[in-house]
Amino acid sequence: MAVTPLARTATAADLGEVAALYRSLETEMGALRPVWPLVDGLTEPVEDALGAMLSAPEWQVLVGLLNGAIVGFLAGRDEPLLPRSGGGLIGAVRLLFTHPDAREVGVGEALLSRYLEEARRRGIRRFDAHVSPGHRPAKNFLEANGFKARSIVMYREEDG
What we know:
This protein has about 160 residues and is of the alpha+beta class. The protein is about 35% helix and about 25% strand.
């Protein structure tokens, strides 16, 4: 029998599981891009950062479930556009992660669909999704969901 992935809004009771998933994301991204935890990750303690996100109106934190177990999460934020937009917002997917054992079964799609749906209800029609260069599966996933690159951030680190 096929299992249908679900997504719902995260609660304070989910904090420990989301933090553990975040640690897996941080490990995966740190191996791909060692600077990721320093510039794109969450501040320590991670549990406090996630807790603040859960209660901040500009953040939406969702969990993805399979058979009732939390196996993924998405953290998106409503971010202001430049003033010339007339007060417009862009929905920015800042963090999106599915446990490796739960990939390619629809958890990411459930999370992204729920996020986009909720953002549209708030009047948001523009969306960003942050992905690291070289993370081909994430890039392919986002492109399959209608996203395309609009900006690339270049990085350089020097000794000394």
